[in-house]
C-alpha cells in the first residue's frame, strides 16, 4: 500500500487524492489509503496516551485508534465542530494492514492530479517535518500538501512517542532527586 509521487513522470499518469482541512490549511491523502469517512460521533479516551492519540472508536466491532492530525503535527488539538469527521485509513505495518482513523476539521473533495501538477517536497518553509510530505500538488493558484500517510502514521514512531511521553514524568522526578544530591 505504499504510494509514491514521481514528479516529472509520464503526463498520462494521474492520481486521486482526498483533500481535507486542518485549521485553515488544506492537505491531501492518496485515495488508495482511504477505507471510509465517518461522521465524528465521539470516541473512547484511553488514559496515559500521547496528546495526538485522541482515543478509539468501535467500527463494526473493530477497535480503531483515532489520531488527531493537528496534534500529531505539533499544533493545538482539533476542536470538534459540525464538519469534523474521522477518515479511516489503511496503514501497512510489518506486512499487515492496520486500520487507523485520523481526525480532521472537514473533508473537502476528491481531486484528480496529473503527474505534471506534482512538485517535489520543499527543502524548507513547510510547517511539517519533510518526511511527512509526499509532494506538493499544484492546483490553479495554490499548493496543497500531499501527506505520506505511511510516515505520518508510522505505528513504530507513534508507539515510541507514546512510551517517551509516558516516561517523561518519571524521568523528571528522577532528575529532580539526582539534582538534589540524593
From TrEMBL:
GO terms under biological process? chemotaxis; signal transduction
Pfam families recorded: CheW
**Database matches in SUPFAM superfamilies:** CheW-like
What would be one Gene Ontology cellular-component term for the protein? cytosol
All copies of the CheW-like domain together span 14-158
Q: Which InterPro entries match?
A: CheW, CheW-like_dom_sf, CheW-lke_dom
Identify this protein by name: Purine-binding chemotaxis protein CheW
Species: Silvimonas terrae
